[in-house]
Design goal:
By secondary structure, this protein is mostly beta strands. 0% of the residues lie in helices and 58% in strands. The protein has a five-stranded mixed β-barrel. β2 and β3 form a beta hairpin. It is globular.
Amino acid sequence: MVVKEKIGIVVSDKMTNTRIVAVSDRVIHKRYRKVITRTKRYAVHDSKFNSSIGDKVLIREIAPLSKTKNWLVTKVID
């Protein structure tokens, strides 16, 4: 099975061991053929507390840790 990885920006670090990461994706509208940017927010596990708001991070999918959290911070990209 292929491991899913995404790059996003940390937008919240208020919770313990959890970060909210916004991942932007550019897609083409089916009817109008215009490029639009869609942003999705993921709850990401970060037990080492090595990321903060504004950091660019690489995240990967893992087995669910809670109801909404099934991503893990792999590394902080500077």
